[in-house]
Write a structure and sequence with these properties.
- The protein is an alpha+beta fold.
- Helix content is 55%, strand content 7%.
- Strand 5 (140-144) and strand 6 (149-154) form a beta hairpin.
Length: 307
């Protein structure tokens, strides 16, 4: 098995591409066999936005120091029990989803299952369990930990994108990337940890670092969504629909919206500072920048730029 210049291992007989150093392998064709799409598998580290690892490292370091300084001599054990209880709560949530939502598989919503399987293949992961739950809002989320994760689509999302499969595939790929890059684990351990509420001063400071990390993680997940659907225009449209909803989307001037956000001034930037998600306009532009500066990726995607 060959290694690239970055030290990553690639499987023989498959198409693979390293976005960092440009290393590439090609699949060997079998005579008489129908050609099969083999995606350029991109590692989790290559997908990460530049500030994600830094933000997470700083936040976790502050969390560790605060634990040792403030709680080690008092109630560290009870807080540890509470923290471990979060994982049990996640297991409970997954059980509730499996009992009340509809599982997507080849026999139930096979067209969505096909989109999900293709997205997972392009991201180089095993397809996570996928569910649809009743909710009119356009939303989706990933839930779980390293060993057990699933993705839930709101029925409002599926309905709104019934005629836009590439956009739905972007959303599925976005959530799959949260799993691929272990975002669901850190959201459970850090961002939603009740320890933060018990530590004076740091209970206000630490969430700011984790919101910073969360914004970077969203950029990372957007990149994975783009890889999953292989269509820049569909990726941008999927995000743009979140601005105004599916009913009025056709009347939205995306270029004007981007200008509006760029000219929002200090108040707009401050609002993002306290948010877990970046400004949508910045996410649209970030997708274009990611594709433009990634060697070889442009040829593998469908750069339908109209949004």
């Amino acid at each position: 098995m060959p290694y690239c210049r970055c030290g990553k291992l690639f499987r023989d007989g498959t198409d693979a591409y390293c976005v960092q150093c440009g290393f590439e392998t090609r699949a060997t064709s079998t005579a008489g066999a129908a050609p099969k799409e083999e995606p350029h598998v991109i590692s989790a580290e290559a997908l990460r936005s530049p500030g994600e690892s830094t933000a997470l490292s700083v936040g976790l370091a502050l969390l560790a120091v605060s634990w040792l300084v403030s709680d080690l001599a008092t109630d560290a054990i009870p807080l540890l029990v509470i923290s471990l209880g979060l994982f049990l709560y996640v297991i409970y949530q997954q059980g509730a989803i499996k009992g009340s939502a509809v599982a997507v598989n080849p026999r139930s919503f096979p067209e969505i299952d096909g989109l999900a399987q293709s997205a997972a293949d392009r991201l180089g992961i095993r397809k996570p369990d996928l569910f649809i739950q009743h909710s009119p809002t356009m939303n989706a989320f990933a839930l779980g930990s390293l060993r057990s994760s699933c993705v839930v689509l709101n029925s409002g999302t599926v309905h709104a994108l019934a005629r836009a499969p590439k956009e739905l595939q972007f959303i599925i790929g976005h959530e799959f990337t949260h799993i691929k890059c272990s975002h669901v684990l850190w959201l459970t351990v850090a961002a939603r940890n009740p320890i933060l509420e018990r530590i004076p001063v740091l209970n206000y400071v630490l969430p700011l670092f984790f919101r910073w990390w969360s914004r970077q993680a969203e950029y990372t997940a957007d990149r994975g969504g783009l890889i999953a659907c292989k269509d820049l225009g569909a990726s941008q449209r999927a995000l743009a629909r979140l601005v105004i909803g599916p009913e009025l989307f056709d009347r939205l001037n995306v270029e004007e919206f981007v200008k509006q956000a760029q000219n929002g001034g200090l108040a707009t930037k401050a609002s993002e500072f306290f948010s877990t998600h970046p400004l949508l306009a910045k996410r649209l532009l970030a997708l274009e920048e990611f594709m433009a500066r990634t060697p070889g990726l442009r040829d593998d995607l469908h750069p339908h730029a109209a949004v």
